[in-house]
Amino acid sequence: MPFLSAAQRKAGRELRSGTLVADSKQTLLCTYLSAVLLVGLVANSLFGWSWADPIAALVIAAVAVKESREAWRGDACCGPIPITNAAAETDACTCCNRPPSRGLSKRSTVSLKQ
Fold it and tell me: CA distances (Å), 37 to each of 3, 43, 45, 57, in order?
């Protein structure tokens, strides 16, 4: 899954799609949460550590609270990419660490408006 997340993030940056970049981050987060859950279950199963599963659940809850607070505040929000000639020429949008656009001409920008 980390490879899928990296591919999604790369495609999102190339396409200047905040939605795809955000989805790649969500995919990576789900991978980490699944790994934490698996470690807790394996530790409980192999070593009889009955406390490992609840600790894993607390880690998952902490991550969920952190993500919720960021979403509530709008810290991780990516706004829509403005489709204007000025925005295409200056690359003013820096949301989600987007690289500067490559090959976006005025002609393609104008056709996107319609």
Answer: 20, 10, 12, 7
Measured on CA atoms in the order 13, 18, 20, 23, is the torsion positive or negative? positive
Alpha carbon distance 105, 15 (integer Å): 14
Residue 34 pLDDT greater than 70, yes or no: yes
Number of Cα atoms under 13 Å in the Cβ half of residue 84? 7
Report the range of poorest mean pLDDT among 6-10, 11-15, 96-100.
Answer: 96-100
DSSP label at 103?
S
* Predicted pLDDT at 112: 44
Average per-residue pLDDT in the chain?
Answer: 75
Instruction: Output the CA torsion 70→71→73→76 (10° steps).
Output: 70
pTM equals: 0.57
Q: What is the spatial distance between Cα 9 and Cα 2, in angstroms, rounded to a whole number? A: 10
Q: Which amino acid is at 111?
A: S
